[in-house]
Amino acid sequence: MNPIRIDPEIMHGTPCFTGTRVPIQNFFDYLEEGSSVDDFMLDFPTVSRDQIIALIELAKSRLIPDAA
Question: At residue 67, does pLDDT exceed 70?
């Protein structure tokens, strides 16, 4: 599952969680502010834990070549 969708018709092409209008940047902003994944999910209930895990795994595979 690809957790990211980029579509010019959705949020002007801002990368969002697939099937939502929630920008990926919002998730990273929450983490930077010290909020938890659970806090994020409470505020953005259209994003599932599976989507968040898929995003983290995608980032990990791109940043740490041996992690794939």
Answer: no
